[in-house]
Structures are given as structure tokens and as C-alpha cells.
């Protein structure tokens, strides 16, 4: 009853308001939940779209499988996402066929006689290999906006004078850039059919028409723009050039694109200036960096220089002088996707052929049987960094003579080497290929080789009448070369696409630069193509042993390096490099006193650096090489003695006082000239003086500063633990006195040649009484050599005589200043010695 009364009158109104409020709150909560759900759904959709885009972008990049340093395996077939070799072949052909138009390397006349293939930019997703694949069949694939902003200035310490053409250097090297009417834009270049042709005289023509593409790093743009920068720009044209540069250089993109570093020389101090300079060199690119390719000029119905329908940007007037690197890969017929080793894949010996494969191994010390099964023009993955496909090179690059030296080389390997050069080199740059036969004994390398190579007019064969060795064979090839640049290659290689132009461009920019390709690996067992880690350079360790070393993260970061920047190389491998021919002879070529093989890479490397040149590894040039565990060739003389003799010549001419480090690392016996005659060095010493070459210390300080090269192994006072005194020289004899660092008479060096030396005097045994004396130092005297810190562990602190047959140690006398030799006793404190400073333990 009380409740009923409460709801009468005003109470009913309150109850109604309460119920209405609850209902309204429930509706409001429902609406809010729906709104949140819609927002979450939209965010989820955006996230999915971003993840798909990221996956699509990663699919276009080169993915390295984590193999042990320094090489990484390239897997070109099978695996997740690729069902068969046919699919790999289809991807390879689709990508290269499309990019063939973009590069304006269209086929003229016949469709199947020659196939010009190159990676395609912005290829459809279905044409790409999965992101997990390590093979790079599309090195120039789709890139993010940030990746396109790659206008990097090369800093000192990475590549000195990387792209600067010094005043007068152009006149000294090559002719200036020609006017546009003589440019490759208007020239059709004839390509000789390079593979198994029935008619040796048959030729197919390919027309090249370079065009301006997206710019390479600014360090290159500055050198390319040197000519254009001489003419002052009109003020009214500045804004137009800025707008044009905005289309070609996405440097001002607000979407997180990295700001390019400022060059130290002040040529371009900000983004706007870089845009102006870039436009003086490049013009007419589509803002998206993927301009629709123009049809070949020779196509019927299209006049010279006219833009095809649907290609508005092609009609824009371009500055002559540069073009994108060609990605040639010519084949006589459509490639067989299922051929053994195709696309750089690992090959397998068929069942039942294992014995034959083993028997033929010694022919080349690699799998000769598999090499013979692989096509001579097999495709290999384009392993260059992504930006290399967009790099610009000069139109008027010098021509080159490619020189192969061989002796008893495997037939299929030699031919594959030659075909890779013919198929992947711009014909107008390839002057000739010179094959120097160093007196081979195999019958197939005589008339059969002559007959085969007769179908290629650019191939010349030189036969030496007697075995001269690699060094003199190269000199013989260089002597008859007609190209402006000499390119030396080993006879068991495969050149990758776009390999030649980056090398020639570096030599063009500075004739004293020696350019080396990145040497990748062709596996000696399964003939697969293996790519190497980035930032590799050639170095040496004592005693002049060549090796590879990776730049540290600190060095890369300090110099702001990218994967496509040239790398300063203290020592080149020696087998693969390009050098200006005139400069090669100005340097004296190779030392003619070097025999056969060994040490020639050290000699020419030191000579180049110390006499004003530079050696660079060019990451955008890639060449595969078969590395064998054993050299299959016979040396006219003892191999070890030949290499030792060559290295000793290099040490005596180029290492100055550091030659002791060479001898001290296992070559003490070479100090005795009666053991081995290294020949007359007069001409080489005079050549070094004539060229005004720097010292080896300069080389270590400026070219290879991270090399640890102490001149002595230990120095300072020589403290005797038992006597608690130090060795000293008094009136020309040895004695002891209280240790005093200020006295020069107590300072000794323990040298790399194992001498205990003070100035020109060395500690030496005396007579049968086992006494000690001081004698004039002579490196060839075994009696002056002492072992310290290099003998058995229990005698680590002892000083042992090397000249005595018995194991005798230096001992301080108990009374007076006596010092003599006695039988070694591990626990005798009077036989334990310590220098003040040790540089090598």
C-alpha cells in the first residue's frame, strides 16, 4: 500500500523519468559500441593493407640466406612458392622481356635470333619470386619512396676523389663528351650473334637508345654535371629546374625519406641546389621513376626522336651525355628452363655417372663433368644491389680489350667465360677479346678452338711458343691490345649483367683509378652461383698473403656508405680488374722479373697506391669465379720457390724498412742470397724513383691504417729476473747494471729477423767457450738469431740461440757482469729475461 501511494501524483513522474533515462543509456551504449567496432575494423583494414604492401615490397628485394661469411648461397629454384624450374624461367623471361623495352634495347628485324633481357621495374606481383627466395631475378624491382631517395655524397676516407674530374684530367684521359648528334641516342649498334650459330658470318642488330633515368648518388651527379655547370644558368630558369628536379629527385618527400648528406666540398649545400644540378644532367623522368619506354627508332612509321603514342614524357628534351647502365643478356634461342645449372642453380651428377665425374675432377680441379652439361650461355641471377640498375654512366666511355690468359683450361669453362663477356657487354664498348694461350698441351685448345672462335670477329687468339706463366702472358696480351682500357679476367668466370660499364665509368672519371668487380663464387662441386656479402675488400696479412675482409659497421657508418658505393681496396685479388692502358704502361706494367704466378697482385697494388693511383671495388659490377682448392697447372720450376722468389722481389722494392716483417714471418731463409736468386732489382728501384712514389709507411697510414705493423717485436730494457739487473753495453762489451730507462746503452730491440740489436750491433755467440760478444748486424747471419717468446711454453721467457745444435740459453752470471750460454733449464731464474715493451707475443 505504501508503494502504491508513493507512485501516485509526482512519484509517477519520477518513475517515468528514471525508466526513460535507463532506456536512453542502454541505446547510447549500444551506439558507442557499434562506433568503436567500426573504428577498430577500419584500423584493422589499414593494418592489413600496410602489411600486404610491406610484403610486396620485400618480395622485390634481394634476400640473403644466412650462410657463413663471406659467401652466401643463391637458391634459384624449388622451395616455397616456386613449383618448378619452368616457373623460374617464366619469371626470368617476363621480367627481362619487359625491361628490354624500358632500356630501349629492343630487337630489330628478327624476333628470336637475339634476345635482349633485363630486369623490369614495377613488375606485377604475380611475376615476382616469393620474399623468402635468395635469388635475385629482379634486382631492379619495385622500390619504396625512401629507397629512391639515394642522392648520397661520397665522403673522404671511403673513396677519395670518387667522382671528381680534376682540371686537365679529362684532356689527359679521353675526349670531351660529344654533341648530341654523335651521341648513342642516334646511333644503332650492331651486335654479333654470340652463341652457337650455324653461319659464322650471321649477324643480328640491336639498337641502343640511352635515356635519362632516375639519378644515381650525388657524388656521381656532380662529376656528370661538371660540363653543364660551367655555363651560368639564367635566373628565370632556376624555378623551372627545381620543379623538374622535384620530379626526378624525391629528396623533398615529407613521408620520412632520408635527408641526403651534404658533400664536404660545398658543391651542393642543400637539397634545392642538388635539384638544380641534377636537372642540368637529367631531365624528363616521370615523377614515379618508371617512364613508359619509347619504341626503337628504327620501327616503321616512327620518325627519329618522335615520342610514341601514350608517352608524353619521352618527348621532353634531354641533356645528352649519360644513360642508365645496360642490362644485356643475349642468347641465341629461348633458354631451356630445365637445362642443367640454368639460372645459376646447383647441378647434380646423374645416378651412374659418379665415377666419371670423379675421374674428370683432376682435369680442372673442379666438377668438369657438370661444367660440360651446363649451357654455355646459362642465365645467372642478377645479384647487384637494387640501385645499380638505375645508376647513370657516360655515353662516351672508353673501349676495352678483355684479356683471358689460359693454359690447358677446361673447354666448356673457357667458352662459358668468353660467351658471358660477349653476351653481357655493350658491343660498342667491347673492342676485342684476346685469348692468350700459354703453350697449352690439350688438342681441343688448338685447331678446334680456332675453328670455334672464328665465328666471333672480336675474338683474337695469341699462342705463346713456350710456357711463360700468367704474368708474362698478360704482358703479351696487353702489348697487342687495341682498346683504351685493359680488362684482365681469369678463364673460369661468368660475367653478370651490367658488369662492364661501371668499371669503365670509374676509369673514365679518373684514369688513375683501377676498378675491380665484386668477385662472386661459382661452386667447384655443383657449379652453382654463390653471391658474397657486401662491403668486402682485398687485404693482405704477413707474409704478404692475400685475403678478404669486411668493413666494420663503424667504418660503414662513419663514411655514410651504401651497398653500391665504391670501396677502397688496399690490395686487389689480381685476376679481375680494369686499368687505363696508358696508365698501365706508365706504371711499368708488371715487374718483368716476376716468374709464372704469385705476388704480382701485391706488386701492382703497392705500385698503384704508392705512385698516385687508387684501387676500388665496384659493387655494381659482379663476376662469378670458380675458386679451386688446388692449382691444376704445372710450374716450369718449383712452385714454392717461384712464389717465394716473387714475393722477395716485391718486398725488396716496395716495403722499405717493413720488409723485415716479411722475412720475419717464415722467410728468414730468403735472406741468404745463396739459397735463392731473386734477380736484378735495379730497373724496378729506378722506376720507383722516376715515378716519385711514396713510402710504404705512407701506404700503411693512409690506405691500410687498420693493419698492425710494428717495426720490432719487442724493445726497451732487457731485465734479468735472477740478477734483478738490466743488460747494457759498456766499452763495446756486454755487462749488467742497475736498470735505468734514461740510459740509451740499456735500450735494445728484438727484431723480426730475431736479432737482439742496439743500433748497428747485435748480440752473438763467441767461440767454443760459450761466451757472448757484439757483432755488426747482418740479416743473412744465422749466428745472430735468437728465439724469444716463440719456443716451447716452458721456455717462453728464455732467450735461445738459433745457431747452436744443442739447445742453449742466454744466462746471467751469479758473480760480476758475466753473461754466457748454458744448457736450458726451465726453472732457472737467471735464464729468464723480459723486455720493457712487447708488440708481438
Task: Write a compact overview of the structure shown.
This protein has 841 residues and is of the alpha+beta class. Among the domains are: 2-58; 712-838, Trefoil (Acidic Fibroblast Growth Factor, subunit A), CATH 2.80.10.50. Residues 59-83 and 97-319 have low confidence and may be disordered.
CATH fold description of the domain at 712-838: Trefoil (Acidic Fibroblast Growth Factor, subunit A)
Please provide the count of β strands. Answer: 29
Q: What is the makeup of the main sheet?
A: 8 strands, antiparallel
**Terminal-residue CA separation:** 108 Å
Q: Over the alpha carbons, how many angstroms does the gyration radius reach?
A: 35 Å
Shape assignment: extended
The CATH level-2 architecture of the domain at 712-838 is identified as Trefoil
- The number of helical elements comes to 22
Instruction: Write down the CATH class of the domain at 712-838.
Output: Mainly Beta
**Percentage of residues in helical conformation:** 25-40%
Structural class: alpha+beta
Average pLDDT rating: 73
Unreliable sequence segments: 59-83, 97-319
DSSP strand content:
15-25%
